Amino acid sequence: MLVFPIVNKGRVMNVEIRLKKASKIRKSVCYEDAKPSEIIVNREKFSESSFKNSRDINAPIDFIRSKSLLYPRRFLVTTKEENSSNAYDVYEVPQPPKSVNRNLDKLYSKAITDMRKEVPGSPKRGRYVSFEELGMEEQLSDEKIARLQRIVKDYPEREWPRLFSEAGIMELTDVIQFLNNFECTVISDTSIAEESLQDTLKAMSAINTRDYRNLKKYYRNAKLNTGLYTKMSYVNKLVNGKPLTLIQTKEKPKQLIKQRDTVEQRKDA
Fold it and tell me: In Å, how far from its chain's centre is CA 200?
């Protein structure tokens, strides 16, 4: 589970980030020609590709794009095995968006890797996401946003694409389009009053333990994420006339999934 901490109205909240329209289509299955923690694109398998042993965090998205050049279509991702059997779940995932930069590709690859590391039937393991670590601070600099603001204010909309490109700020709108491929849901019962968190950090500062340092980093990332999300929302309002609404407070209705009481054996995945 990818977790994005953010501050809102005096509370530090945790938001789960998932790929939009990625759906779990099978539960508790086992296919002869599909391993756990696998990516299958047009019958090509990540485990049998040259990307398998790469240490590049973007190896998953690079594999997916390389095997989708001729036939871009939905692909499959399998989870890890259940703790009690060799069965696993299967996701069906839409094609990734066009590449904006390698840092944003990291977020997509993290989402794919998160699916591959999922253990069905076990509590999800949270992994924090930091917009700063994804290079968003440089992409959303005050200077670039000021350039965008001037163009939007002084020129008609039909001229924006050309002027954005000439001003070197086309990436601002590309970032918004890329992030719209994700859905973000507030994780219930995980928020804490910001003032309470500040008091805890103040009380722990004297001992300077690992717990204190981790909590301090968590709060710092939450504040940075908040600032960068606010900037993204402002960019979206300038270009599209409304604030960004990536973060939702309610879960969407669960999709129906085919499920087997026993492990399913098939030759084709």
Answer: 29
pLDDT bucket at 251, cuts 50 / 70 / 90: low
Average pLDDT in the chain: 91
Residue 117 backbone dihedrals phi, psi, to 5 degrees: -90, -5
- Rg of the chain over CA atoms, in angstroms? 21
Nearest to 219, CA basis, from 234, 198, 238, 237 = 198
Structure tokens at 198: 């500040």
The token pair that represents 12 in the structure block: 């530090």
Q: How far is CA 174 from CA 20, 106, 157, in A?
A: 17, 15, 16
Query: What are the C-alpha distances in Å from 80 to residues 9, 217, 259?
Result: 38, 30, 16
Whether residue 269 is predicted with pLDDT greater than 80 in this model: the reply is no
Question: Which alpha helices (H) appear in the chain, and where do they start and end?
Answer: 59-66, 102-117, 136-139, 142-154, 160-166, 170-179, 194-204, 210-240
pTM, two decimals, is 0.87
